[in-house]
Amino acid sequence: MSVDITASAAWRKLQDHHEAIAALRLRDLFADDPARGRDLRVTAGDLLIDYSKHRITRETLRLLVELADEAGVAAQRDRMLQGSHINTSEDRAVGHTALRLPPGSSVTIDGEDAGAAVHEVLGRMRDFADAVRSGQWRGATGQRIHTVVNIGIGGSDLGPVMVHQALRHYVDAGIDARFVSNVDPADLVAKLAGLDPATTLFIVASKTFSTLETLTNATAARRWLTAALGADAVAKHFVAVSTNAERVAEFGIDTATMFGFWDWVGGRYSVDSAIGLSVMVTVGPDRFAEFLAGMHTMDRHFATAPPETNAPMLLALLGVWYSNFFGAQSRAVLPYSNDLARFPAYLQQLTMESNGKSVRADGTPVTTSTGEIFWGEPGTNGQHAFYQLLHQGTRLIPADFIGFARPTDDLPTRDGTGSMHDILMSNLFAQTKVLAFGKTAEEIAAEGTPPELVPHKVMPGNRPSTTILAPQLTPAVLGQLIALYEHQVFVAGVVWGIDSFDQWGVELGKQQALELAPLLTSAEDPAPQGDSSTDHLIRWYRDNR
Ligand code: F6P
Known about the structure:
Layout: H1 9-21, H2 26-32, H3 36-39, E1 41-44, E2 47-50, H4 58-71, H5 73-81, E3 108-109, E4 112-113, H6 114-134, E5 147-151, H7 158-166, E6 176-180, H8 185-192, E7 200-205, H9 212-229, H10 234-237, E8 238-242, H11 245-251, E9 258-260, H12 277-283, H13 285-304, H14 311-325, E10 330-335, H15 343-355, E11 373-375, H16 387-392, E12 399-404, H17 420-437, H18 441-446, H19 454-457, E13 465-470, H20 475-496, H21 507-521, H22 532-544
Parallel strand pairs: 5-6, 5-7, 7-8, 8-9, 10-11, 10-12, 12-13
Antiparallel strand pairs: 1-2, 2-13, 3-4
Helix pairs in contact: 1-4, 4-14, 4-20, 6-12, 7-12, 7-15, 12-13, 13-20, 14-20, 15-20
The structure holds 6-O-phosphono-beta-D-fructofuranose.
Keywords: Cytoplasm, Gluconeogenesis, Glycolysis, Isomerase
Catalytic activity: alpha-D-glucose 6-phosphate = beta-D-fructose 6-phosphate
EC number: 5.3.1.9
């Protein structure tokens, strides 16, 4: 039986506490407690996380930690780290943290030495990546590989594509990567444009190897290749990443060039498995190992830090605080790093596929809202698009700001005396300051603003944000950031009592798409589909295609 956290004493205390402090203003909280900015922050690995600009007091934190206690977060965390079957609706172990265990340490999952299995695959990935990078692995015509094209979707795409962009500075063997995911043919056609089949290697990445989009794109890519180089070329230009050897072989890829993983790795938790092969090829096995080590650093922090200084726990509890007590609907993720442009999209799958659930693990309905909606764009672009609503809109949208002390690229400012990266970071600091403290009508009037304009210029402030800073966007830091969010999604799921590792909600749409597909092109009039909207839409499509 799942715990109904909303019936707990800790929840009731938080409700009362919320009533008592909801009207407090960050301006006053900072004025009353000069040590707040120094104290309400935590370090985890290389990350400095400032959570002082949240609408909390030290008592709020104490009560949130009590909530985590009551929800059994620490015990469930330990079960996850031991690879237990906490994905109950699929009766599967959850073991993604085993993917980044250092050599020599291990955990037993489903009776097997997961550490040994992981390092066996990592070793094969390393050999393969080295061979491609050094030119020992060549295409069917004897030419070196210049481009890897990863074909996958969801967790078999979003992680690699995000990490490839984030680590573009570490691409060092003259091999580029492209990523194809959408069943919209525009994706594959655009990504193949300009590529030479003789120098292109496809990595077909699919946990199940049954995903419509991926198999459709992979088949089309194989046609593109064989039209140029003949059927025998497939072996040198297609490799697979999957848990399903049978289907890989059925597709026509030699299982000797298949890199496996396990059903205890959820798709959205798989970038550090063989699903990251495209990244390993472009940045090299050593950088990939640093990426894994970064994730492990955060795993250790999550496993050992007490709740009050445990970064993933704090971020999760703050998410719960705003979602369930302030009624916030979403969280903005705002990386002040263009290289992290795909990070918000990556986190969307992580959090929304994991925690977008209406029933608890035992099937009983939840009694509070779950599943934060993550969205965002890199700063400063977002500032010129949607920050207006963050600052003066009627919704409360907590935001995570992410920035780095040292740039991956830098250029001088207009007058040549400063650094563009410093301007970028000054914007990050300014935004969090303005969100928190705003500007009052009195302050605006005192500047001589005409009275009729004053209300338009008032900046309400009191809008919460977390600031996450790191020295530089290195492979290790990226690994830490990803694991930070993985674990905070997990903690929120435990508080809500849901199974964060299944995704039944995506199945029906897939099934119905397969059923509807023949109706779009059949010679006969399509049979009614049970609702007049779908019938009319299909008719329109048939008339206009
Ligand atoms: O549709 C959801 C999903 O199952 C994701 O969870 C997964 O990451 C994605 O599809 C791709 O699945 P696969 O790796 O099996 O192709």
